[in-house]
Here is the input.
Amino acid sequence: MATTDTAPAPTPPTTAQKFIAETLGTFVLVFLGCGSVLLAALAAGSVESAGDFATLPSIVSIGLSFGLAVALMSYAVGRISGGHFNPAVSVGAALSGRMAWNQVPMYVGAQLLGAIVAGGTLLVVGLGFDSFEAFDTSLGANSWGDDGSGYALWAALLLELILTAIFVLVILAVTDERNEHPAMAPLVIGLTLAVIHFVAIPATGTSVNPARSIGPALFSGTDPLIQVWVFIVGPLLGAAAAGLLYPALFGHAGDPVPGSGLNFGRSSAAPAAVPGYGMPDQYQQQWNQQNPAYPSAQAAAPAPAPTPVAEQAPAQQNPWGEQPIIQDGWQWDPQAQQWIPAQQQAPQAQWPAPEAGGGQTQVRPPDGV
Here is the structure.
């Protein structure tokens, strides 16, 4: 009997691997982004606040440092953890139904760890300049008010809320499993973050990421620590608004991830793959964790024993005698109402036709012999 061979599903990443990926990605983001601020300031002499960077070359270089860091690390480890690198993004993902709430503490802990380690590393690197004063010189910390950029408190809070909402909305859109071009998602996310920095650097130094603000603030003296709450509350509120708004406007491709959104229970529904869009890549899979429609959720389940094709064919025939629907290697099962790997049809035995002009006649044996 012939059997069908299907490619084994990739092994899903472990919790430890996700923790490491988020820690590493956040470390690189904070080290490169804030490092572009710190080292430029020390080399130029003295920069007291974010407003002192309000020149076009500085804004562009700093914004691209943050944006490209996110894009690069999303390409590098996004297939493992989804490449959040931001507590606000993780909260938005959970509220939008992309990630279970029980994953959020692990993600946020990894992001804070990466940001704090990056802040400590920048403190050591800054000692290479004689003008650097440990625990006094700002490590690219965010600021507002008279002790910072001069930007008003209410305006700083509102600006961070709006920019974070835009950022998370873009992330939810480009990582949607209905998106036909998932390979572009990390680049679009990075460019979005860069543009956001172009806007807010003169006002607050741009946060949209509580971890990015907390890490440098711990090593930058008293004022950044006093002001850091704005860069925690604003981004979290903006992310929450985006996480609720996106599915309300555009819906879900399937059922939300169990234990996500505003429903903390477990759903027993198993949505099928999205017709017309094929299967998502590993980056999208991590952005739709535990969704039973995708290989990342199915890999942990034991694979069923292969069934001979001859036994499978009757179950997959359309009850109306129509041809099966096959697309991108997946076949629609009308009985199970879901997409399954396309099966090979068993070849039907045929008796050879007699040769033209031959002197012998082949007799077909009676049925049952």
Remarks:
- The CA atoms of residues 314 and 321 lie 11 Å apart.
